[in-house]
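Internal ticket - ligand job 402, magnesium ion:
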Amino acid sequence: MDKIKMNVPLVEMDGDEMTRIIWQQIKDILLLPYVDLKTEYFDLGLKNRDLTNDQVTIDSANRTKELGVAVKCATITPNAQRMTEYNLKQMWKSPNGTIRAILDGTVFRAPIMINGINPFVSCWKKPITIARHAYGDVYRDSEMRIEGAAKVEILVTYPDGTTKTQEIFDFKDSGVVLGMHNTDKSITAFARSCFTYALDIKQSLWFATKDTISKTYDHRFKDIFAEIYENEFKAKFEEAGIEYFYTLIDDAVARIMKCEGGILWACKNYDGDVMSDMLASANGSLAMMTSVLVSPDGKYEYEAAHGTVTRHYYRYLNGENTSTNPVATLFAWTGALRKRAQLDGLNELERFADLLEESTIATIESGTITGDLKNLLDVPVKTVVNTEEFLKAVATTLESKL
Ligand code: NAP
Ligand code: MG
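stdout (structure tokens):
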């Protein structure tokens, strides 16, 4: 069989630890034998980020703006322990944070549904997709420790020199402060991506903030969503038979636990971070959760929702057999290839991405699985295999479909 052709390269962002190992295995076992893979490679592994003073992360994001589609491996966000482990020059920022700040846009996360894996929340019959606002708030904040008594104020300086101050707190003793921001532009883009995506997947959109407490900050989000809905999307939503529903974040959480799924849930940055992990766990495994960042001007970055699976990596370094689930990372690749195929009109490549996903699901449903799914999958016969064996089993299924 001739290898499937590509025109425009994907931006390939390599990463760290166990997922870096899996990255190469996916390419070797499931992509390179079938696709004449074109990528522009950026090594976002922590060692290289340190070597390039994190320039590689910025370059990869800027290249994504030009080429349109990226696929990203999970990466370490350094903390104090990583500083010593990797002998870092600096505690580099989260690569995902940097990329999101450059691309803006929204992260959509959805579980990969498998026959035989039932969500822990028994009323969830259809997937719940979470849209996480990918810009600002606590992820781009400025924080300070206050040592002893101090009056803390916000100072705003306009270009014409006029200023405005507002008291935050009059400290009688030590404490902490935090300043954060968001922009109308980013919130507007977030709202538009959410309404557009809801129409794409024909699911109702829920949005929630804490506007009763945060009467200016969160209220701004609520107002922008309402305005864009009224002006641009209301008619289209009615035509599609879906609705836009706004409520308070605590009410939304309560309702989510009682709904049947099949909705798109728009969350502010922090809510989306936390709630997507809750959703992923309730659906069984973080390793069965897809994630895509969509910028307002239609650039896509696909990745897995989980991290670098450090605990497995240390076992792997000790020569132990690891059964890490590669599905979310594999679906990042298929998502990126499918999007590239759609943009470039490559039917064969699109079909390949579909078949590879179908083969992965079929392999799991037939009982060949990684360790994390052992207690979740309800089928008569289960065989737990290591990561490489799993990918080879998917390849066998794929061969039979090609
Ligand atoms: P993690 O890598 O997601 O792993 C947490 C635990 O979840 C694992 O120890 C494992 O549980 C389970 N798990 C996650 N993915 C799995 C998979 N594919 N197959 C099987 N089990 C899986 O989170 P973490 O340990 O908190 O973070 C590790 C590193 O990843 C950190 O340096 C962090 O900065 C980074 N991180 C990166 C991203 C990203 O790049 N998007 C996101 C989150 C975290 P068991 O050990 O019980 O098997
Ligand atoms: Mg999280």
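Auto-summary: The pocket of NAP (ligand 1) is lined by residues 74-77, 96, 286-287, 303, 306-311, 324-325, 372 (CB under 6 Å). Residues 303 and 332 are 5 Å apart (CA to CA).
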